[in-house]
Amino acid sequence: MSEGKLRGEPHLSDSLIPRLQQTLTTCSQLIEAGDFSNSDGLVTGLADFLTPISVSVVEEASDLDVERTSFEILTEIHCFISSPSRNQEVIDALSFELPKVVCKFACASNRCSEIAEHVVGHLVSMCSPREMLSILCEALSSPSEMFRVPCYFSPLIGGLAKVIILIKRRQFEQVKAAVPVILGVLKSMSLETDEEGKDTEDLFHKAIALADSIQAVCKKLEQKDKKKLCALLGMYVLQVMALVSIAMGHIISSLLPIMIQLSHFLPICGLSYEGLITGLDVDKFTTICGDEGDNSIACFSHVKHGGSLAVIWGYKSNETSVAADADFEAVKNELQKNQSKRWQAIGMLKHVFSSVDLSWELKAHALDFLLCIMDGCVHQEIQNDTMGHSTYMPTLYISLQAIEMVIIYAPNAVLRKKSFDALMKVLADVPSSLRFDILTALIQNSESSSMIAILLDCIRREMHDEYSRSISVTSGVSKSEVKYCQCLSFWSAGVLELVELVLKPPNGGPPSLPEYSDAVLSALNLYRFVVIRESTGKTNCTGVLSKDMLQKAYNEWLLPLRTLVTGVMAENQQDHDQLASDTMCALNPIELVLYRCIELVEDNLKHA
């Protein structure tokens, strides 16, 4: 206890409250007398008088004296504006400044937050709804950095939830103008605040109350405006789903009830699980809500994240799918049997996998969902692209890149294994005629040695499987009688281009070792496999056995690499630290495969 408290010194509020009372009374008298020029200055002065005090709410958050002072200030303001004898013009004048003022004091404690909500709520009930909509949006947009905290914003969003219902004309336009401001606040709070904060959870409950209000307005509108506002509500709900997942993704037990509440709005807005996971509903609603050249649509930057997460939660929680009035099993079955819709779903999931803001827990749920729809799915090979399957390839490529990021950065082996399985299943779903191009693009645009190694190994397995199938198909048939090489998607010169990409990088010189040891070892194994298969099968589909290619590989890939490996190993052989030991361990298998490749090339050059 401070020395002042022991001596019984006067409390801070003992001097502040009388001054606040006097300021409010004088302001009221001036307005009632019609002296608006002086009263406006006094209202502004009231805000200036209270601002330094409100700063202490943030700076000394645990100080009980500050909390008591804040409570007494808020109580005095609430009593003043709630007086039955208070002139309406006085309330109108104070409404321009009081929301910002009281919400700063709301941060002192729960009871202060409750009184701040009462003040904002009373102003909403007494003043013009359109005026209050503008005032509250301005208060949301204008706090100083110090007050960019959930407890400041919650009473304001709660006030907006009340004022929206009171607007009688041009409801869609008014709500559409307010939504970007609200979502901007929610987005900044999701990215900036402590994910475990109770205040953040309360803020999203206010956002749900706002959705309830928009729904209530929808019921009053004619068909055309109702359709537009329902679409806006749907977009708002999906964006909130994504933002609350960012803010609270590490505390699933608290996040689930909020997702269930938000899921109730999906059928009301006409959003289905199938439409969400394929992206069709999101695209349709974006078109309804956004006019040409309309910048307000930018506030819905995470609706595709939200659409994916809505369905993922339906998969993880039966209660959520019930709230969404959805039959998840029917959606799963449709995705498993319909390749185009399945690819659209994979394209939507990329937003979850590639997000740096969503938690690993949610990405694990997304992987479980993806594996669920890939298990038992019906693969379709294409002879000619009459269904336009190639148009899905750019989206699948980006989705596979997103899954790669999970493999590379996942914090544990279980999640890495799960994401690797997902990668393999998605690749297997791509028709073989297009799969090589996808794998090539992934390798060419990857900077991870380990990922390049994984993808090169995929190509080697695909070549092995394709070779085995071709042997069984052409068994007993003279290869001269079939267009053997044309039947093979992977056995082409493109394979050697990928080997060269690793062993002789485009920027010149041999690859960097030991940094790229995984990729180099995989490229050597792939090259060795191709040489052995082509030579034993007496084919040359890849061109690997042509004299020019053998000499190129020998002089430009293998010999420079041998010089590099020998030099690096010599440098580290005498050292006994951990780095040298790790380097030797990485280079030993490379040396073994490299010398075997050199022997194979030398043998084939003799017969070229």
Structure description:
- The protein has 608 residues and is mainly alpha-helical.
- It is built from 29 helices and no strands.
- It has helices at residues 3-6, 12-32, 36-59, 64-82, 88-95, 98-105, 110-126, 129-141, 150-166, 171-192, 198-220, 223-248, 252-263, 265-269, 273-277, 280-289, 303-316, 318-323, 328-337, 339-353, 360-374, 393-409, 413-429, 432-444, 449-473, 493-503, 517-536, 547-573, 578-607.
- α2 (12-32) packs antiparallel against α3, α17 (303-316) packs across α20 and α19 packs across α20.
- The protein starts with a helix and ends with a helix.
- The relative contact order is 0.04.
- Residues 1-9 have low confidence and may be disordered.
In brief:
This protein is an all-alpha fold and 608 residues long. 75% of the residues lie in helices and 0% in strands.
Helix count equals 29
Q: Please give the radius of gyration in angstroms.
A: 33 Å
Regions with little confidence, pLDDT below 50 for 5+ residues: 1-9
How many strands in all? Answer: 0
The percent range for strand residues is: under 5%
How are the secondary structure elements laid out?
Elements: H1 3-6, H2 12-32, H3 36-59, H4 64-82, H5 88-95, H6 98-105, H7 110-126, H8 129-141, H9 150-166, H10 171-192, H11 198-220, H12 223-248, H13 252-263, H14 265-269, H15 273-277, H16 280-289, H17 303-316, H18 318-323, H19 328-337, H20 339-353, H21 360-374, H22 393-409, H23 413-429, H24 432-444, H25 449-473, H26 493-503, H27 517-536, H28 547-573, H29 578-607
Helix pairs in contact: 2-3, 2-4, 3-6, 4-7, 6-7, 6-9, 7-9, 8-9, 8-10, 9-10, 9-11, 10-11, 10-12, 11-12, 11-13, 12-13, 12-16, 12-17, 17-20, 17-21, 19-20, 20-21, 20-22, 21-23, 22-23, 22-24, 24-25, 25-27, 26-27, 27-29, 28-29
